[in-house]
Amino acid sequence: MKHGMEDYIFAQHRNLDGYDLGLYAIFDGHSGHEVAKYLRSHLFENILSEPGFWENPVQAIKKACKATDDEILENVADSRGGSTAVAAILVNGVKLLVTNVGDSRAISCKNGRAKPLTVDHDPEKEKDLVESRGGFVSKRPGNVPRVDGQLAMTRAFGDGKLKEHITAEPDMSIQKIDEDTEFIILASDGLWKACDCIKNVDGAQKASKKLVKEAKSLGSYDDISCIVIMF
C-alpha cells in the first residue's frame, strides 16, 4: 500500500554552554507522520534542557525520552501512530552520544570497516519484555514478528494503543571519535548496505544521496532517510 513520506530528518549545529554540538536524528514514522514530526521539533530541546545533562547524559536522555513520549501521548492527536528515533549528539567533534528507539540504525566506519552503534528492538529478541508487560508476539507466514500482531518493533514513541506492551526507553552508547573514524551513518530501516558504496565519495551530502539511490536500486520500497556525518 502506498502512503505519504513519514520520515523526518534533523541536522543542526549548535553552541551551548561552551560546547560545540552537532545534533543529528532520523525519525521514521508509521501509521501517520505526526509523531515523527513532533519528535523533530521537541526531542533535542527536551534532552538539552534536562537538568544534569552534562553530568549524566545517559540518565538525562532516558528521562527526556520518557517525558517526550508522555507529551506525545497527551498532546499529539495522531498518537495512535508512532515513530522510531535514532539520534546522535556530537560533542566538540570527539565524543558521540547515540540514542536508539526502534529499528532505525546507526553505524560508524573505521578504517573501511563498519561497526554497529545500535541494536534493532526486534519483537523476537525482546519477546520477554513484551510478555512481561502483558502483550504477545506473533508471526504470520511470510511476515515479520509483531507485537500484538501489529507493530514490528518493541520500542517506539507514540503508538498509544500498544503503549502498555511496548516502551520508548532508549538504548544508549557513548563513542569516542578518533583519527580512524571516517564517517557515521544514521538511517531508517529502508536503507542498509552502507559503508562499501560510499567509502570513496567526497562529501556527506553526495554520500547520503548515493546510499539512498543504492537502496532503491536493490528494491527497497520503504521510506528511506539517511544522514552521513564525515570526519
What's the quick description here?
InterPro entries: PP2C, PPM-type-like_dom_sf, PPM-type_phosphatase-like_dom. The chain is of the alpha+beta class.
Q: Main traits of this protein?
A:
Phosphatase 2c, domain 1; manganese; alpha+beta; four-stranded antiparallel sheet; 13 strands; magnesium; PPM-type_phosphatase-like_dom; PP2C; 231 residues
Derived structural class: alpha+beta
Oligomeric state of the chains in view? single chain
Order of helices and strands: EEHHEEEEEHEEEEEHHE
**Averaged pLDDT:** 87
Strand content: 25-35%
**CATH homologous superfamily (4th level) name:** PPM-type phosphatase domain
CATH architecture: 4-Layer Sandwich
Task: Please write the CATH class name.
Answer: Alpha Beta
What number of domains?
1
Tell the overall outline. globular
| Rg result | 17 Å
CATH topology: Phosphatase 2c, domain 1
Number of helices: 5
Give me the count of strands: 13
Low-confidence stretches: none
Catalytic activity: O-phospho-L-seryl-[protein] + H2O = L-seryl-[protein] + phosphate; O-phospho-L-threonyl-[protein] + H2O = L-threonyl-[protein] + phosphate
Keywords: Hydrolase, Magnesium, Manganese, Metal-binding, Protein phosphatase
EC number: 3.1.3.16
GO molecular function: metal ion binding; protein serine/threonine phosphatase activity
